[in-house]
Amino acid sequence: MDPIANESAALMGRVAPEASALKHRSRTTEKELDKDIAEMFIRRLCQLLDTEDFFGRQASLSPQKKIERLFLASPEDKNKSDFNCAVSPKVRLQVPLLFQAVAGVIEEKSGVLVQSSSEINGEGFGRALLYSDRIILVLKSLRAGFPFPFTSEEKVIRYGVACVEEGLAFMDKFNEMTALYGTDGLEG
């Protein structure tokens, strides 16, 4: 059925079956995580958290406890950030560490040097950029700090794995296109 017809049918109270299926799509059916990438991401994030722990006070903790104590924001921090639109120190810590961990996993999976650059201002607006040479692999805009601050480990891992998969997919597509046409065909 034509999208315009779906729209007008919905306005008149008559909804086509395929239109109602589109409306009732939910987020409860989440994509299965790649366990290998998730483990690599957790390991990289914990390595970065260990470099921030100068005296090794948290060295004996499990990776999950390290992420919980040193990386995740408390619900109070999240509410405070939501209320006054100011970015908490936890968010300023989370943004660069998360994208450095993602860059490390992409490096490990692809064998190519990947750089990360991230910035966030006091109101939560900013960007994160992962690139290799002249190729931008991942570009994320931060609006009012969203999706930061993370308050659960699962959300951190899902977001990190999604960024890694996005970067690897773009790198594969770039390699495929340059194999066919060379890099001259991709110049703007």
TrEMBL record:
- One Pfam annotation reads DUF269
- Fetch the InterPro entries from UniProt: NifX-assoc_nitrogen_fix (IPR004952)
Query: This protein is called what?
Result: DUF269 domain-containing protein
Q: Which organism is it from?
A: Paenibacillus odorifer
